[in-house]
Each structure stands twice: as C-alpha cells, then as structure tokens.
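for the recovery benchmark. tokens below, seq after
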C-alpha cells in the first residue's frame, strides 16, 4: 500500500511538471515542500519508470520514413525535407537537398533533365554562386524543348549547373522533339547524337524531375502517343517518359522525343528523382514502382501521404 501511494505521488508530481508545465517552485508551494525535494521526486520518478523520456531524432525519423518508402522498390537512399511555409520555400530546401545529395554520392559526371524543378535549382545556383563539389562535367539528358520557358532549355540549364558546381558543361545541339519519327531516326544517326550517347555512357548520376500528368507543357503527347496515355492512365513523367500508377512506362513506336534511351538510363548507377512541392501522391507512387529511381529528394508530407493513402482495389 505504501509503495502504491509513493508511486501515485511521483506520478502526480510528474504530471504537474511535464504535462501541466508547472514550475518546480509552484509544485513545491502546492505540496508544502522545498523545490530541491520536488527535483528529487522527479529524478526518482524517472529512475522507477514512472516517467520515460523519449527523444525523437528528426534525422532518424526521416531515414525510417525513407526506408519504408523504398520497401519493394529500387530506392536505396535520398533526402526528405520538412515542409516550408510556402511552396517556393519548400522548393528551395529541396534544391539545396538535391545539391547536397549529388555531393554525398561523389558524383563526377552529372546528367540533368529539364522541367520546373531543374529551373528552381538553376535559379538557386545563380543566386548563391558556385559551390565546391566533386562534379567534373554536366550534360543534358534530353534535347532543347520548343517552349519559351527557360526551365525547358536544356543547354542553358547545363551551363548554369556547370558554373554552380565548378564543372565543365557538355551541350547537346539537338531538339527534345523532332518533327516526326522519321526525323528522329535521321537525327539519331548523326555524330551529334553519338556524342551525346558517349556522354551518357560515362554519366554516373542522373538528376530528373518527377512531373505530374497531365502537365503543361505536355511535350506534344497526343502526336507522340495518340490516346495511349489516356487509355493506360498515365499519372506522371520522368524526363519525357510517361508512366502509370502501376509503374509501367508507356511506350509508343511513334514517339519522336530525343532523350537518353531507357536502357542507357537504367545503366547509370545513381538515378536521383526530385519531387517539387506540387508533386501528387499518385505521381510519386507510380514513379517509385517504375524501378527507375535509386535516390529520392522529396518533402516529408508527400512521403508520408504515399505511405498512408490506401490505393482502391480494382476487379
């Protein structure tokens, strides 16, 4: 009985101190004891297991979350960041994390895609100036798109990345989209394309944007795929490869995009995919199932949503 009363008293003191946020002096006054005596009671409460103090290390929590996200996929690592107070702030933190990961992997030859997030990273390099990195060369993974948006001008982004990483740029003087499959075949038989293939074969790290589908610009998807993307329920895009939620990359024999071929892409050891602040849950889930990603940079809430959302069953 005496032990039970003692444990009850320790629990009451601990409750007042830890849950009610009362000061030790306040508790002492209420009990009619000294403050040092309250301090001894709290210490005894910890010793007897009445109070357990658990420290949650944010980095360990992120590692655990990343590990759960990669179960059953090709994912081996990456960086998750906390949500910022705005999309632009989150994107900036993601850009910094991607640059950090490139360095952690000891990247020597970097290939970059295009899209909104690649543009965010280019802007970060322009604003912050060059950083020390192991990267020696930067090359594009896809030609220049015919859109008046800098984010889709591969050579310009390569130039900025190379300056920001103190590396040498390699420029690809080919379009992202040819006029037809016949023109693509002709362009892919040229020395310019063979030079690009040579660069791709030596690349050790890819950095590509995970894009939602449908998206703008749509990279002439109707001309390249007809209604295939609709029929196969495309949900996302890596470079200019579209995929569905099952992770199946949708391929068309009329696709006239000029980009690193899938078999060459899959031979690159480190394949980093970055999700911007507006990347959808289905988009990331499908990307993880493609088998393309070895590393991921994303915000914590997106990763958590992918794990928590239950996919509807289909008959």
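predicted aa per position
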């Amino acid at each position: 009985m005496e032990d039970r009363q003692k444990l009850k008293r320790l629990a009451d003191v601990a409750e007042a101190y830890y849950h009610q946020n009362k000061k030790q002096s306040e508790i002492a006054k209420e009990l009619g004891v000294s403050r040092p005596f309250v301090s001894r009671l709290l210490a005894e409460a910890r010793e007897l297991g009445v109070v357990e103090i658990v420290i949650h290390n944010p980095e360990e929590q992120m590692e655990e979350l990343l590990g759960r996200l990669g179960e059953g996929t090709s994912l081996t690592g990456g960086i998750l960041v906390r949500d910022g107070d705005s999309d632009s702030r989150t994107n900036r933190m993601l850009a910094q994390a991607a640059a950090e990961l490139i360095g952690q992997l000891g990247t020597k030859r970097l290939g970059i895609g295009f899209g909104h997030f690649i543009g965010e990273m280019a802007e970060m390099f322009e604003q912050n100036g060059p950083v020390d990195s192991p990267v020696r060369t930067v090359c594009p993974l896809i030609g220049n798109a015919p859109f008046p948006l800098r984010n889709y001008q591969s050579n310009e982004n390569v130039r900025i990345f190379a300056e920001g990483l103190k590396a040498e740029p390699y420029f690809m003087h080919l379009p992202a989209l040819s006029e037809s499959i016949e023109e693509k075949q002709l362009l892919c038989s040229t020395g310019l394309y063979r030079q690009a293939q040579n660069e791709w074969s030596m690349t050790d790290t890819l950095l590509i944007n995970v894009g939602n589908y449908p998206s703008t610009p749509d990279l002439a998807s109707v001309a390249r795929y007809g209604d295939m993307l609709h029929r196969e329920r495309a949900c996302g895009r890596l470079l200019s490869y579209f995929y569905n939620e099952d992770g199946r990359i949708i391929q068309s024999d009329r696709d006239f995009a000029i980009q690193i071929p899938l078999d060459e892409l899959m031979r690159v050891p480190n394949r980093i995919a970055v999700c911007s602040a507006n990347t959808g849950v289905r988009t990331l889930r499908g990307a993880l199932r493609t088998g393309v990603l070895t590393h991921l940079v994303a915000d914590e809430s997106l990763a958590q949503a992918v794990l928590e959302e239950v996919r509807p069953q289909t008959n």
